[in-house]
DNA sequence: TTAATGACAATCG
DNA sequence: CCGATTGCCATTA
């Protein structure tokens, strides 16, 4: 049968569903994609992200409320800058109102309908 | 094919 | 609260 591997294109689609000013987590994306334990793999997917900046990978943070990574150690700064620009306040590498900014209402059904180029 | 790596997460001390 | 450890999954060499 088909492999149980996570769907990269699906992950990107789900991430595109995250509205501006909101954030999600690697874990939430992995879970929405049908692989709840593949949070780390999602991180790897973001790292390679060939669809940037079309895909808002800067809206993906740690489940802990911390920013996480973004390219190099210098990239985290840019990530915080982008989030602040969208209205998401960041303090000391950590989201201030993480619980309220957290987005988890993914529509996998809709995401599966269209495919990424 | 096996070993090593990394933009994660949960647990432990 | 913070640092260290272990587990997980997919990619890369």
Describe it for me?
Strands 1-2 form a two-stranded parallel ribbon. Strands 3-4 form a two-stranded antiparallel ribbon. It has one domain: Winged helix-like DNA-binding domain superfamily/Winged helix DNA-binding domain (Arc Repressor Mutant, subunit A, Orthogonal Bundle), CATH 1.10.10. 40% of the residues lie in helices and 7% in strands. It contains six helices and four strands. With 117 residues, the protein is mainly α. The longest helix is centred in the last third of the chain and has 11 residues, at 75-85. The model has no long low-confidence stretch (mean pLDDT 89). It binds a DNA duplex (13 and 13 nucleotides) through α2, α3, β2 and α4.
Write the layout of secondary structure elements.
Blueprint: H1 8-16, E1 24-25, H2 26-32, H3 39-48, E2 60-61, H4 75-85, E3 90-91, E4 94-95, H5 98-101, H6 108-113
Parallel strand pairs: 1-2
Antiparallel strand pairs: 3-4
The protein binds a DNA duplex (13 and 13 nucleotides) through helix 2, helix 3, strand 2 and helix 4.
Task: Jot down its keywords.
Arc Repressor Mutant, subunit A; two-stranded antiparallel ribbon; 6 helices; 4 strands; DNA-binding
Give me the count of strands. 4
Distance between the termini: 25 Å
- What is the CATH top level name? Mainly Alpha
Order of helices and strands: HEHHEHEEHH
Assembly category: single chain
In CATH terms, what is the architecture?
A: Orthogonal Bundle
Low-confidence stretches: none
User: What's the CATH topology label?
Assistant: Arc Repressor Mutant, subunit A
- Helix fraction by DSSP (H/I, runs of at least 4): 40-55%
């Amino acid at each position: 049968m088909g492999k149980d591997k996570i769907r990269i294109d699906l992950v990107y689609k789900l991430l595109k569903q995250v509205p501006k000013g909101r954030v999600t987590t690697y874990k939430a994306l992995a879970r929405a994609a049908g692989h709840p334990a593949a949070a780390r793999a999602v991180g790897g997917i973001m790292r390679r992200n060939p669809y940037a900046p079309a895909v808002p990978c800067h809206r993906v943070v740690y489940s802990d409320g911390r920013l996480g990574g973004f390219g190099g150690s210098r990239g985290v700064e840019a990530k915080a800058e982008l989030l602040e620009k969208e209205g998401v306040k960041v303090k000391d590498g950590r989201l201030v109102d993480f619980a309220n900014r957290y987005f988890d209402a993914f529509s996998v059904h809709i995401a599966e309908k269209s495919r990424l180029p």
